[in-house]
Specification:
single chain, 140 residues, six-stranded antiparallel beta sheet, three-stranded antiparallel beta sheet
Protein backbone atom coordinates (compact mmCIF):
# COMPACT_ATOMS: atom_id res chain seq x y z
CA UNK A 1 0.00 0.00 0.00
CA UNK A 2 1.21 3.50 -0.79
CA UNK A 3 0.77 6.00 2.05
CA UNK A 4 0.65 9.76 1.49
CA UNK A 5 1.71 11.13 4.89
CA UNK A 6 4.87 13.14 5.29
CA UNK A 7 6.65 11.93 8.42
CA UNK A 8 8.03 8.48 9.14
CA UNK A 9 6.37 8.55 12.57
CA UNK A 10 2.95 9.24 11.05
CA UNK A 11 3.39 6.47 8.47
CA UNK A 12 4.42 3.93 11.11
CA UNK A 13 1.34 4.65 13.23
CA UNK A 14 -1.22 4.22 10.43
CA UNK A 15 -3.44 1.17 10.61
CA UNK A 16 -3.35 -0.99 7.52
CA UNK A 17 -6.86 -2.39 7.32
CA UNK A 18 -8.41 -4.97 5.00
CA UNK A 19 -11.08 -4.09 2.44
CA UNK A 20 -13.35 -6.17 0.22
CA UNK A 21 -11.45 -6.80 -3.01
CA UNK A 22 -14.66 -6.28 -5.04
CA UNK A 23 -16.30 -3.18 -3.56
CA UNK A 24 -13.65 -1.73 -1.17
CA UNK A 25 -15.81 -1.70 1.97
CA UNK A 26 -13.76 -2.08 5.14
CA UNK A 27 -13.86 -5.64 6.47
CA UNK A 28 -11.06 -5.97 9.06
CA UNK A 29 -9.40 -3.37 11.25
CA UNK A 30 -5.78 -4.38 11.87
CA UNK A 31 -6.50 -3.83 15.58
CA UNK A 32 -8.85 -6.85 15.46
CA UNK A 33 -6.39 -9.38 14.03
CA UNK A 34 -5.62 -12.50 16.08
CA UNK A 35 -3.53 -15.59 15.51
CA UNK A 36 -5.40 -18.88 15.73
CA UNK A 37 -2.59 -21.09 14.44
CA UNK A 38 1.05 -21.56 15.31
CA UNK A 39 1.63 -23.30 12.00
CA UNK A 40 0.66 -21.77 8.70
CA UNK A 41 -2.13 -19.43 7.53
CA UNK A 42 -2.86 -21.88 4.68
CA UNK A 43 -5.82 -24.27 4.95
CA UNK A 44 -7.12 -26.89 2.50
CA UNK A 45 -10.80 -27.76 2.14
CA UNK A 46 -12.02 -31.30 1.29
CA UNK A 47 -12.13 -30.37 -2.43
CA UNK A 48 -8.42 -29.54 -2.38
CA UNK A 49 -8.75 -25.75 -2.58
CA UNK A 50 -6.05 -23.92 -0.62
CA UNK A 51 -6.97 -20.75 1.29
CA UNK A 52 -4.53 -18.29 2.84
CA UNK A 53 -6.58 -17.14 5.81
CA UNK A 54 -6.45 -14.04 8.00
CA UNK A 55 -8.08 -14.48 11.43
CA UNK A 56 -9.79 -11.73 13.43
CA UNK A 57 -12.07 -11.51 16.46
CA UNK A 58 -14.30 -8.88 14.85
CA UNK A 59 -15.33 -7.84 11.32
CA UNK A 60 -17.26 -4.95 9.79
CA UNK A 61 -19.77 -4.88 6.93
CA UNK A 62 -20.36 -8.61 6.70
CA UNK A 63 -23.32 -10.96 6.56
CA UNK A 64 -23.31 -14.38 8.20
CA UNK A 65 -25.01 -17.25 6.43
CA UNK A 66 -28.31 -18.26 8.03
CA UNK A 67 -27.25 -21.91 7.63
CA UNK A 68 -26.67 -23.89 10.81
CA UNK A 69 -22.93 -23.88 11.66
CA UNK A 70 -21.26 -27.25 11.15
CA UNK A 71 -18.24 -28.94 12.73
CA UNK A 72 -17.74 -31.04 9.60
CA UNK A 73 -14.28 -30.49 8.08
CA UNK A 74 -13.56 -27.59 10.45
CA UNK A 75 -9.96 -26.38 10.29
CA UNK A 76 -10.16 -25.55 13.98
CA UNK A 77 -11.05 -28.44 16.32
CA UNK A 78 -13.78 -27.45 18.76
CA UNK A 79 -15.28 -24.89 16.37
CA UNK A 80 -18.24 -25.06 14.00
CA UNK A 81 -18.26 -22.80 10.94
CA UNK A 82 -20.57 -21.03 8.54
CA UNK A 83 -19.95 -18.72 5.56
CA UNK A 84 -19.55 -14.94 5.68
CA UNK A 85 -20.12 -12.53 2.81
CA UNK A 86 -19.55 -8.85 2.16
CA UNK A 87 -22.61 -6.81 3.17
CA UNK A 88 -22.31 -4.55 0.13
CA UNK A 89 -21.50 -6.81 -2.83
CA UNK A 90 -22.27 -10.24 -1.27
CA UNK A 91 -18.85 -11.65 -2.25
CA UNK A 92 -17.74 -14.70 -0.28
CA UNK A 93 -15.13 -13.51 2.24
CA UNK A 94 -14.58 -16.55 4.43
CA UNK A 95 -16.02 -18.18 7.53
CA UNK A 96 -17.33 -17.45 10.99
CA UNK A 97 -16.07 -19.96 13.57
CA UNK A 98 -18.19 -20.56 16.67
CA UNK A 99 -16.93 -22.47 19.72
CA UNK A 100 -18.86 -25.67 20.33
CA UNK A 101 -18.11 -25.67 24.05
CA UNK A 102 -18.86 -22.65 26.27
CA UNK A 103 -15.40 -23.11 27.85
CA UNK A 104 -13.54 -22.54 24.56
CA UNK A 105 -11.96 -19.14 23.92
CA UNK A 106 -12.40 -17.20 21.86
CA UNK A 107 -16.07 -18.07 21.61
CA UNK A 108 -16.24 -16.61 18.07
CA UNK A 109 -13.65 -15.61 15.48
CA UNK A 110 -13.52 -15.12 11.73
CA UNK A 111 -11.31 -16.50 8.98
CA UNK A 112 -11.13 -14.30 5.88
CA UNK A 113 -9.51 -15.64 2.74
CA UNK A 114 -6.62 -13.39 1.72
CA UNK A 115 -7.73 -13.34 -1.93
CA UNK A 116 -11.09 -11.77 -0.93
CA UNK A 117 -9.52 -8.64 0.58
CA UNK A 118 -6.97 -5.94 -0.18
CA UNK A 119 -4.86 -4.17 2.40
CA UNK A 120 -4.58 -0.40 2.71
CA UNK A 121 -5.06 2.76 4.69
CA UNK A 122 -8.53 4.14 5.38
CA UNK A 123 -7.80 7.69 4.13
CA UNK A 124 -9.75 8.71 1.02
CA UNK A 125 -10.45 5.14 0.01
CA UNK A 126 -13.00 4.95 -2.81
CA UNK A 127 -15.72 2.38 -2.40
CA UNK A 128 -18.77 1.32 -4.33
CA UNK A 129 -22.16 2.11 -2.90
CA UNK A 130 -24.49 -0.83 -2.41
CA UNK A 131 -27.16 0.96 -4.44
CA UNK A 132 -24.75 1.21 -7.40
CA UNK A 133 -24.08 -2.53 -7.25
CA UNK A 134 -27.79 -3.34 -7.08
CA UNK A 135 -28.40 -1.09 -10.09
CA UNK A 136 -25.65 -2.89 -12.05
CA UNK A 137 -27.24 -6.28 -11.31
CA UNK A 138 -30.71 -4.99 -12.21
CA UNK A 139 -29.49 -3.90 -15.66
CA UNK A 140 -28.23 -7.38 -16.60
Amino acid sequence: AVVSTQSTGERNQLELNYYCAVCSWEIISSAHLISMSTDSPFYVNPSGHVFETITAYSLSNTLTSPAEPTERDSWFPGYAWTFINCWCCLSHLGWKFIAVSPDTTPSVFYGVTRSAVTQGVRENRPRLRREDLLDMFARE
